[in-house]
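Re: the request from the purification team.
They wanted to know what the chain is likely to look like in 3D before they choose a buffer screen. I agreed to run a prediction and write the result into the notebook, where they can find it.
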Amino acid sequence: MGLTHNDGYIWSYAGSNATPTPDGDTYLYPHTQVDAQVSYWIPRGHGLQALVSMLNLNNEVFGFYNGSERYPIQREYYGRTVSVGLRWTLSPEPK
């Protein structure tokens, strides 16, 4: 399980006259994302392991705004991502 947080921060400067208007500095919205991964050694699977990886479980939005959060520029909606797979290794499963 993993938790990643990036607080809101400045992406680019508009110049010395920057004000909290649509012409102001560009900022990123705060972003907190929850990810998880699970693996399972298959009994008598001769080195076979099942994996499930899940990204952005909380469906966090990513985006930019100018000067103030009242002036959004871009919002990106990625949704959740789930990957399922098998891993085979030459070594036997751990005891």
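For the purification team: The chain has a mean pLDDT of 86.
Please add any questions underneath this entry.
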